[in-house]
Amino acid sequence: MDDTLLALSEAAGIATRWRDVRGTEHQVSPETQRALLKALGLDAETEADIADAHQRLSAPPSRPPPLIATVQGGEPLPLPGARPGHRFKLAWEEGGTLEGRLDDAGRLPTLDRVGYHRLSLDTVAMAIAVAPSRCPSLVEIGALPHLDAKPWTLAVQIPSLRRAGDGGAGDFTALGDLAEAAARHGAAGLAISPTHAQFAARSGKFLPYSPSSRLFLNPLLADPDAVLPGAAPAVVPTDAVLIDWPAVAAGRQARLRALFETASDDPRFLAFRAEGGRALEEHARFEALHTHLLASDASLWHWRDWPMALRSPQAPGVQAFAREHAGEVAFHAFCQWIADASLADAAARAGAAGMPLGLIADLAVGTDGAGSHAWQRQDSILDAASVGAPPDIFSPLGQDWGLATFSPLSLAAHGFAAFIEMLRANLRHAGGLRIDHAMGLRRLWLVPRGAGPADGAYLRYPLREMLHLLALEAHRHAAIVMGEDLGTLPEGFAQDITDAGMLGMRVLWFERGEAGGFRDPAHWTREAAAMTTTHDLPTVVGWWRGRDIDWREDLALLPDADAERRAREAERESLWQCLSATGSASGPRPAEDNPIPFLDAAIAQVGRSACELAILPLEDAMAEVEQPNLPGTVEGHPNWERRMPGEAATMLDAPDVAARLASFTAARRA
Length: 670
Hints:
It is a single chain. The protein is an alpha/beta fold. It has three domains: 2-58, no CATH class; 67-131, Immunoglobulin-like, CATH 2.60.40; 138-220 and 338-382 and 400-448 and 461-669, Glycosidases (TIM Barrel). 36% of the residues lie in helices and 16% in strands. Strands 22-19-15-12-11-25-24-23 form an eight-stranded parallel β-sheet. The protein has a six-stranded antiparallel β-sheet with strand order 1-21-20-17-18-16. It has a five-stranded mixed β-sheet with strand order 4-10-9-6-7. Strand 2 and strand 3 (25-27) form a beta hairpin. The longest helix is centred in the middle third of the chain and has 30 residues, at 267-296.
């Protein structure tokens, strides 16, 4: 059975072998193969099962999928199973038709009209997507040059922002305040933290990269006053250093409920709800149902454990619940309206302030399998496996991130509808999109439910089609695309995304030569975004002071803290020498407790990089010591709880901060 099982796994997209960071090859166990095949909807317990699964994979579909193919403009399109000379009729998306015959290879002629078009072959109708060859460039968007320089943006964790009357955490109005302030200092946009929907029933926790849905927004980031000024109750002021998420959530939900009581008949809300259609209605039903069930039984967190009559949006019990709790369902739809309208306001303010990129949204790699998205899209999202990472030097047991993701087989069978839907939702108010763990466009490490992280395997994804659709949707929304491409990548992947017009990421700490020394920024990749650090890494000041090492030592996350400190000391010397050699720094190396000269030099170094775009985290602009998130921790470190020291509208005007931003702009002109 092993040979036939291996063949089936490979045919289904499961890589049966993988190579670790040391170059050692590993064979995926039969148990893992069977578990992942089952997650994909293919039984493989017996030879008969395997034969049947092979037949299902190889058999032509009984009817064409909604989207049969994607192609780059200028390429002929082969149609599997079509006859040479077959007559066709193509209805262009923008109107008009093209009629003719397939060529001798059964292909459509070269197509140069970008869009989603309807193809008819006899009585069979299907859609095809014609994509541009690349995602939009900074030049095409009008962001390069910006103010006679290569563009730069700030990166911001939205909850960290402050404004008067915010109730203890940042919101979309504070984001708009920051956009206007940053534009005055020369920023071309803001790269923002994920705005995905969390769980209304778990509003006391904030996990931006483990959302309930990537289709909808987090109402806790909304500002009702941006939509209905003065209609919501006043907020109790707070100047706390850390965000108290349970208190913030309670206060903001109370405001939204009070507002709903007076504005539920607002014509704008009714129009938004009608436009949102089935997807919005199902999300609102999930939120209401989830909250209702948990109020009586805390074990019903995952929809998989709900009564059978409630486990899918189409189930009779869900329809009955929606009728009986129509007001509660409407409330959750109302929350989405307020969130959408206040995010739209922030985006409009960024554009009006002169930012050509506006807001660069952040797309998480997956969703919580217990959430709304997985419940709604059970035909496209894998329920019995989660995304993670194989064992490596830093995580010898591997990682299980507990995130659900798309089934590549189902995506293709359903015309990539769920992927397109997700892209559109996240590009709705954005001038750019950052794709977290962009390698997931080609492969993801999946861990079967109940297995350990090391007992997973890579599942391949249809990279070509997904890049085509990404380019098409990015052009329709006039947005750049950036892929988080850090770490070990599959062979050829970096070139694949570069060819597709995606910007990679180049982080100061990781830009090293073969001998381990830091690289001159003039040699960094042009088609990328340069940055000092990320939300998962130490701030520049924190790195210089070794604050990240202190945290990991205190939380018993380091086997040898002294060795880490010795290594950091050597890195300080190496990086300072590089900064001095490139002209970003001068004079003797500053002491560990004097990080500001190093911070200013590091910012200048990133600014003068060859990268088309540069991103400065707000924490570094403000010379903050602490990083937003410490990976590998759930308790012990205040992840996603830190706040900025000043108000979003004015904090960039502090003399030291303004000077830092001016230096960054000057470096982008160099």
